[in-house]
Specification:
Layout (H helix, E strand, L loop, with lengths): L1 H20 L1 E7 L6 H16 L4 E7 L9 H6 L5 E4 L21 H6 L2 H13 L1 E7 L5 E5 L12 E4 L1 H9 L3 E4 L5 H6 L5 E5 L14 E7 L4 E6 H5 L3 H16 L4 H14 L3 E3 L2 H23 L4 H8 L2
Parallel strand pairs: 1-2, 1-3, 6-7, 6-8, 9-11
Antiparallel strand pairs: 3-10, 4-10, 5-8, 5-9
This protein binds benzoyl-formic acid.
The site of benzoyl-formic acid has 11 residues, from strand 8.
């Protein structure tokens, strides 16, 4: 009897050791499950779970139904979750300079070499209690989509749905910004609460916005940034082998950006086929728009983050 008890206890202890070696991280996305800006993160989760078998596992809880988009940054900071797929635009309340990441469109291979990744990682360590594991979509730009036709780049009299990404440029061209999470865009357009919205060139079909969109204004501007963050305590709790699984998968995830060239081309064609008309005001107007768009955004970042904004601008080189 006694020996059976001891053997049983030894077995339980062995099982506990084995399971302690495999760490499970809870993860959320700030974008709806299965949509454009969650999809590659979901592929990353699958890769980690297969490459990391027995070492590390990601328990993907899902999208905004789990944590509201503008609260995801804080959820990683406070370790309500261990990992998140989230754009800096959604945590500017905690890190004002996060609004500047969209102004750097250099490939991540270059940003990792020239010190940009390292600097942005330090900012995340300090202000968001997290590790800046990966940044996706450097080569995917944004647009302003409209339901009212304009004959020059002037948003006077228009209410445009924004996040921090588009706020300064919409205001600079005379529009009235209305901030909403992506989940509220469809209704805002359908009800005429908004006359247009900011969004990347890709992804408008995911939530049916093509049905409530008439025009896409040219030119494309800025660079999408959606980051994979890991709570810093969770990161520090991992061993070298576990971190290697995450780092290798992060580099692979950043490499998936190369697929976006073809995706963007297809998406523009699909928008045209859906009757969404491009509004193009020519080269000179586009250049003036871009110059102003970058300038007002940098000024805004530097005003709100005077210590770190100038360094981010220098690293972006624009
Ligand atoms: O428009 C948005 O909600 C937004 O800011 C964003 C940022 C990155 C990818 C997609 C949307």
């Amino acid at each position: 009897m006694r020996s059976i008890f001891i053997a049983g206890a030894a077995l339980i202890a062995a099982a506990a050791t084995a399971s302690a070696q495999e760490v499970t991280l809870r993860a959320v996305s700030s974008f709806a499950e299965g949509t454009e800006f969650s999809k590659n993160f979901e592929r990353f989760v699958e890769k980690v779970n297969s490459d990391g078998k027995g070492l590390i596992k990601i328990n993907y809880i899902g999208g905004p139904r789990a944590v509201p988009p503008f609260e995801v940054g804080n959820a990683v900071r406070t370790r309500v979750v261990d990992m998140a797929n989230v754009t800096g635009a959604f945590y500017t309340n905690l890190m004002p300079e996060a609004d500047g990441f969209k102004l750097n469109g250099k490939p991540m291979s270059e940003q990792r070499k020239n010190g940009t990744w390292d600097y942005i990682n330090q900012l995340h360590n300090q202000k968001l209690g997290s590790q800046y594991l990966a940044r996706q979509f450097h080569n995917v730009p944004f647009h302003i989509y409209l339901n009212k036709k304009i004959d020059k780049i002037d948003f006077s009299g228009l209410k445009i749905r924004v996040t921090p990404v588009y706020r300064d440029v919409v205001e600079a061209f005379g529009g009235t910004p209305i901030t909403t999470a992506p989940g509220e865009v469809y209704t805002a357009l359908e009800r005429g609460v908004a006359d247009g919205y900011g969004w990347p060139v890709t992804g408008i079909f995911d939530l049916g916005w093509d049905k409530v969109t008439k025009f896409r204004m040219e030119p494309p501007f800025y660079s999408v940034e959606v980051n994979v963050l890991v709570n810093l305590d969770a990161w520090k709790g991992l061993n070298d082998a576990q971190r290697k699984v995450l780092n290798d998968a992060a580099l692979w995830l950043e490499g998936l950006d190369s697929e976006k060239v073809a995706v963007i081309k297809a998406e523009r064609e699909r928008q045209a086929a859906a009757g969404i008309q491009a509004l193009d005001f020519g080269e000179a107007a586009s250049k003036a728009f871009l110059d102003r768009a970058y300038e007002v955004a940098w000024q805004s970042v530097i005003k709100r983050a005077p210590e770190t904004g100038p360094k981010l601008r220098q690293l972006a080189g624009n």
